[in-house]
Amino acid sequence: xxxxxxxxxxxxxxxxxxxxxxxxxxxxxxxxxxxxxxxxxxxxxxxxxxxxxxxxxxxxxxxxxxxxxxxxxxxxxxxxxxxxxxxxxxxxxxxxxxxxxxxxxxxxxxxxxxxxxxxxxxxxxxxxxxxxxxxxxxxxxxxxxxxxxxxxxxxxxxxxxxxxxxxxxxxxxxxxxxxxxxxxxxxxxxxxxxxxxxxxxx
Length: 202
Known about the structure:
The chain has helices at 8-32, 35-41, 46-53, 56-74, 86-102, 104-116, 132-143, 152-163, 181-199. It is mostly helical.
């Protein structure tokens, strides 16, 4: 992005580009996204887009890392004065489920990054990972006898995977916000109970 502060008009253009590009990348992926479609729908031009983001890859990076930041901030793993337990992990999984309903485009961005950039290993490079505080919380919960033993990263990965059972990238069934509330509540109950049982100590 340009070093100089954005004017209000520039900020509006910048946000339009982000909004349009999120839909474009979520639908078509990195290789399939087209800058021409983005600038047309955002009512701007290539020169402006490149001034903000440098390249198509730079634009995707802004969206992708912004989506990770959003999920971290909007759906944090609650850590208060008490050690984290299986109940806390279960509640976190349910809140992730709800976030996938609100913003299915964000999970699609992560999936495209997995498919096109990092087919193995961590989804992001070590320097970009945002899970250190979650791993510490799980480790503390294990030390307090509230979370089952095992590699904290593996436990976190399992909870996230369980939360994604009905996500937009599920190969079984993708839930949508348009479904009846009772369907979502039934899944929340099952998800919360399953994670609690899977993560409980002993």
